[in-house]
Predict the structure of LysR substrate-binding domain-containing protein.
Amino acid sequence: MKMSKQFPLNALRVFEAVARLGSFTKAGEELGMTQTAVSYQVKLIEENVGEPLFLRRPRQISLTEVGQRMAPRVTEAFEMLQEAVSNARGDIDSALLISSTPTFASQWLARNIGSFQLAHPNIAVRLTTSDSLTDFTREPADLAIRSGAGVWPGLDTHPLMRVEFSPMLSPALAETIGGVHEPRDLLKLRIIDPGDPWWPMWFKAAGVKDPDLEGRPHSRLGAQSFEARAAIAGQGVAILTPEFYPDDVALGRLYQPFELRCSDGCDYWLAYPHARRNTPKIRIFRDWILGELCAPNFLQANSA
């Protein structure tokens, strides 16, 4: 494949948008172009490359094998160009879009982001929450905080916090059964979300055989932080990450009856596209949060 002497930058931009959005129409709307103009630019780049980049079917397009190899490199190239321009003009006076899991956002980030904003008042922070893995090619997020193994193609990742879990409940609820003295005592109480896979893992590690969790009414509150609120209200025993609730423990609203903690290997990670690793606002936030999570009360992932 031989490139022409005149590099088709505009056509590459159109190709990148069509590949990312999966639609000629949506690419035209994003770029302010007619569908005809989009088709013409795609045709130009295909002629330049010497290979078809899209398979065109009625009401559907998909990348060819060549297009699939080319698309991520083109996206990365445009991100690097944008980064170069931003660096040249010192452009950090912009919004930082953070996507986070709901629990990390409510139990840690919301409590600590104020110190970042005080230190960097020229960076406006916007926070969205989702349990789904952020698709940086389709969503306007700068970086994400996610739970997992930390291996995602195309992304730079940094361990933030090792996730361990253990049953927690209100002291008042424990008193209703004369106290929780052994792991099996927990089964005398309502289990908040017995369908959570953390429960059988913890009971097995605690030596409790056949806890019969399947026979209990299931309820899914959608986020660990909601389950913690239910536990504080005395509605049952929740399986939680103790590091998120030091204030509730200190105030006597929650307690962890057993020292045993388990992990399923899914820790919290900071993730962002490799091509954006030197973007000033991403670099500034990365350095801040890694510094904050070196505090003694938090365990770094992979350090245990």
